[in-house]
Amino acid sequence: EQVFTAFRGTIDGAEYSDNQLIEMMGKETDTAKRRKIWEAMKQVGGAVAADLVKLAGLRNQAAHHLGFKNFWDMKVRLEEHNPDELMAIFSELESLTDEPFKKMKSKLDGELAKRLGIEAKDMMPWHYDNPFFQAPPPSEKIDMDEFYRGKKEEEIVGIAKKYFADLGLGIEPILKNSDLYERPGKNQHAFSTDINRNRDVRILMNLKPTAENTDTLLHELGHATYSYYADYSLPYNVRDAAHAFTTEGVAMFFGALAKTPSWLMAYGGADPARVKELEAAIMEQRQREQLLFARWSLVMFYFEKAMYEDPSQDLNRKWWEYVARFQMLNVPEDRNAPDWASKIHFTIVPVYYHNYQLGELFAAQLRGTLKNIAMENYGAFFRDKVFAPGMKFPWPQFVKEATGEPLTAKYFAGELK
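Predicted structure:
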């Protein structure tokens, strides 16, 4: 973890931070220079890979001692996942997103290749702005910040207050003790915290009038309302979200509204004519975000499972095998480096990444469920069906009782058509 903290990639002897390299990648059009930047962002993998393989072995030893097949098996079971059911969900996700992803990637590759002056068939991993191809480049058709530019931070908070009040989920008690705005020396991240699980719920963030910041505000308020509207008659140990991915799913549900056309018009004060003009571009960018992250999550899921099944195998080759299969990227023929190890999650939050994607699936399933419920009843649905049960049930039972069916990728895939 300390290596990741201190490491700086180098290009021709000069050191650069990750943010500098990402900024350079967003501006560079020369293929040879882009490859150098991309390789610099992967260099940390070489610095940690050998120790990470040893650590995987030690984690497996501990898991074996406790009676599990390996560390991956132990972690997913202790997260209340059935490994077979988890595999089935991700297999469904792969099959349902295969065609939409191919179609989207073909169009994206054509756009990027034109900008970079190459043929689409020659696109390589360094031709994408994100080093892991887990997020799309900014859209050339829209700038979502235009809907928030010129607003004061307090106006953004007012928009959120009105929306949650209309749902019947008042957030004034949450905001009263929250820390929302920038100041010197303050933590630069964002989070929600539930003090003693006793209805003292607060969020921290550094709000600015941008689409991303509004997304973050609504996201953290999703976590916060989940905590604040819990059933406080429940014992302390079960007075919490049904699962890590269910609170993430609720947060994702609310956060996504910041970039949703109907919400922008109803609550964001956006000009309806302008929203309608840009609606197709807004939805296309949203689709790209969802698809790219879904296919990236498949790489993470299958690779980490394979790594703990056999840490001694050729992990460099296994990584590119999954990248080619799920992200459909061209594999560099002349590269044999531990690019996989440059993803910090393998080191600091092992066997957890799948929960992010499960959260996306749950958010989509919530949207599908709410299509049959009037908006004035949304608050009651969340309070009674989602928040109140706490951790009383295993998550598969909770999801089925809340939405009427088991967790599935079909709603997520349905939004991508």
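Summary: The chain is about 60% helix and 5% strand.
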